[in-house]
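Supplementary Methods S3. Input chains for the assembly prediction are listed below.
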Amino acid sequence: MAQFTLNVNGSSHQVDVEPDTPILWVLRDHLNLVGTKYGCGIAQCGACTIHLDGMATRACQLQVSMVGNSEITTIEGLSENGDHPVQQAWLEEDVPQCGYCQTGQIMTAVSLLKNNPHPTDEEIEMGMSGNLCRCGTYTRIKKAIKRASNS
Amino acid sequence: MSTFKTKTSRREFIRNVSLGSGGIILSFNWLASCNSTERELMALPNNWYELNGYLKIGENGLATIMSPNPEIGQNVKTSMPMLVAEELDIDWKNVLVEQAPLNVGLFGNWQIAGGSRSIGSSWVPLRQAGATARKMLLMAAASSWSVPIEELTTSNGIITHKASGKSDHYGVFAEKASTLEVPEEVELKELADYKIIGHSKKNVDGKNIVTGKPLFGLDIKEEGMLTAMIVHPPAFGKVLKSFDASSVINMPGIKDVFTINTFNDEDARGWSDITAFNEQVVIVGESTWQVMKAKKALKVVWQNMPKTTIKQAGWGGNATDVSIPTGLESSVDHNKKLNDYSGLPLQTARKDGNPEKAFKEAAKVLERTYTAPFRAHNTMEPMNFFADVTEDRAILSGPVQTPEAAEGSVATRLKMPREKIEVHLSRMGGGFGRRLYGTFVVEAALISQHVKAPIKLVYTREDDMTYGTYRPAYTLKYRAAIDKNNNLTAIHVIGGGIPESPLHENRFPAGAIDNYLAEKWVIPSNITIGAYRAPRSNFNASAEQSFLDELAETLGKDPLEFRLELLKRAQDKPVGERNDYDAKRYAGVLELVKKNAKWGAEDKKDLKRGVAAYYCHQSYVANVVDVRMDGSKPIIDEVFAAVDCGIVVNPDAATNLAEGGTVDGIGTAMYGGLSFVDGMPQQDNFDKYRLIRHHEAPKKVSVDFVKSDIAPTGMGEPPYPPVQAALANAIYSASGKRLYHQPFINELNS
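Predicted structure tokens for the full assembly:
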């Protein structure tokens, strides 16, 4: 076990965990931030997507010892009241079915729009292809991203 | 208005208010309570008055409605309370929703997410619950104002007496109403008067989902809770020989390593109990990562399963001995058997006319064989469950589609009466049938009992994929006899599978063919199977509707018109009496998709199209798929879906389900599948098991519903099967290549 100081959603947190612990489990088990989901553990599904210094990152592959002073943003820190334009667009399009993958989808979408504020349909399809949705809400996810991009 | 008697038994249930919100919600309020987006700015009332077990009303006029059924993404947590709210006659903005725990006394035997039946089975009781409460509020108002109840009207939660000009909201009368006897009779609204049913309402959990609030089973956390994982045999046909606890017990955070026997030999297993891997190694520790690491490090020795017989419970309490086949099975061998089952006994499932004679006299016979592999459900949230078991009670909480069956299995295994067991439902990260089999609930209960602490059992993705209740491996062979005048004279279908046949012998085109023979066969297996979204239909539709397409081509007919022609025959002069579909509704969805897709009239340049339709779970869906080929890869431009599911309760949510079912159907047809070598699943995570991804989905899905006044029929499953065939037929139009073996990606690349 070792002590780490993490910068999560704008505040500093101390955790005492093994150095190889993925940030996914530090967030979920130790910081009670459960909006970041476990889906595969091998960076294939995108359910655990967070932002590391603003970049979309798979939390299941990021060991706590690698983070250093980098800024971690989770879905809980994306906006104060769930009113980020992408979250709003998700609600307006009523995207979720089961809802499990959607926080990861939103974190990827926010990052996509940050790098490319007005993506084409194809850019959305390719940019979101790392996030699985077992319920098949892809067409609504695309609509929500286009809505957010126009807002 | 139609008058409904409140049955005596129902009346007792409705009045049994203490069951509605017993002790359970105390420790699990974070799971149960949910504010809809609109509700956030409204103050909660100081007091809630329970009018019946389904709903309570606050002094300020807000209503809390219980949603009884498991929410797996089919939107029942929104659409079921809509039924109550409609008859309560309240503004939807003034409704809060709570997920109800398991309560058979209150909700009867339909607290289950399966068979696309949630809305259909609750259609009358939930509207009745709302109407009953409305009537009690009217009785209270009539008494307070000393006016005849007949002179009172309601609208959006307001009671008005026109003659005296008196008017007030429900909250004013809630306390008094809660003391009244439940009325013997209530009236239900007519379709034309609906203000909520048929009007889209957004997901009541939407805000909590997009902000990452704890909603799912894996999000459960309780004081003193430990994390548990199982280590199960790596192959079907293997059992535990020995394990070395010392290999992991000193690892950081590890508390205990032991084995459990999920079921006792003397207890008969229920339909939802899984027969594989009865003895498992359990690792319990402080945190998820610590247990995951220990799970990888644990030294275990496995051996081949000896001859095994289990007791299987039957209907009416009769248990039968069932022997589990031994041996280590492989897909190479399975595939040989799917293509050559000569020598196996065929069972006749249905015969009309004289098919033998028709085939003997045929000028031409079209014969095609279709196959599909095992499939894992792969819910995005892996199996998990919370359990806190002490000597005198068990608290169980998490994602399960069959809470009542799971409670029964736990009661049997722990020898604990059902009254001492509480089952709470979380929102579920997908179901698709996998969570019908709640053996993980029994495992969680046994682990908690052993370590004498609250635990959360977590399956890794690999556990989830390799310890499943899979969709079986299926085959269907279709034969059609065509006479010298190019008339279809007979159809012969043989459906087989490992270890279940996909045959639906009473489905279309049965009923439209004079000479018809349906036969089936099965090969037993020790690989566990279970219901998978639209069981059997999920392959039956693909094979049947692909064959009809090729048959239409052989007969020189338009594939859509050919189906309509057969359905007209089934409608006007049906063959046989056991046809399970309504030919008129079936033709209705084909007519609707024909109109919406402009079948036969649309010229979409480089796009080619295919059509298919299917009936299952009492509903009808027809698809037209437009594709173009990019080499061997189909680019799916648009899918049209025409749906007849009776009255549509929540249109936008139903549209979402149809869109999702379409994407899932295309994913199933095109990609993925589970294969075995020496009993071991060869795919254990998403790097090896291919699921459809965003860029592979259709660019657009256009959904339309048949306008209907029929009570709601299934919606979760019906949009999934037919699109598989519509896609295959479209790919044929675009590429000239017929597809017979799922996943199609292999056939397209070969």
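Chain A has a mean pLDDT of 98. The radius of gyration of chain A is 15 Å.
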